[in-house]
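INFO batch 0412 | record 1 of 1 | parsing
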Amino acid sequence: MKRLVTALCLCMATFQAVAGTSTQDRQQVFRKLPDWTGIWIADDGVMTRLGLRNDVEGDSGPTFKDRIMSRPAPYNAEWRAKAQDALKNSSKYRQAGKECGFYFPGVMESPWAFEVLITPEQTLFVFAGREVRHIYTDGRSHPPNDELWPLPWGDSIGHWEADTLVIDTISVVAHSERFQMNPIFSPAAHFIERIRKVGKDRLEDTLTMEDPVALTQPWTMKLPYTRVTTIDRLIHGDCMDNDRNPVVDGKLTVSPR
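INFO prediction complete | emitting tokens
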């Protein structure tokens, strides 16, 4: 409760600092925000192995799936069985259809590079796959339950603690099968992120997943990012455009060209 009250006070302070202020006052608020300009990519993203980053060779680290296999998530007995079954059937699921786009939280460890746009009212994460996360930092709360519905990236609000962006996300589409790099979770899942700059060209997202239905305790992992230095603009892609790997008769095909 104490932490909740503190977070609410911080949100209200941000809102009061922005709402109803002059242009000069807003500019002062903006100047206090951190500089995350540039293009970033997850260390675990597949595209790092394709040369988008200039300082990585070979395997660049574990994905959500690797972490589930090597360091099991704190699922309860029922959901551990579901997770193991989902992993067993993941190859069958992937052959049956083509996955385009990354849902949260997997998008934060996807192969897509991204940019971060920071304003006093909100922070946007804009990915090369055309996914956009809106993190509202103007003091608003989540919508009431009767105005919420599951979304690929959920509903996110946040606030700044010095140079750390604290994000609270709910109402994410829950998958009961392996989809992209997402672990399975229930509709009750709640996500807290603490994103900060940890070096000149380094960002870090400490992601905590809470799910009273599926997990026995919060599940936390750190997702590292590096600034991309080999490109100077973000080009949005579409995996269905000029599709060389269509789904035919329920199976994903591979064409040499």
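INFO post-check: The helical segments are 2-18, 23-31, 64-70, 77-88, 90-96.
INFO record closed
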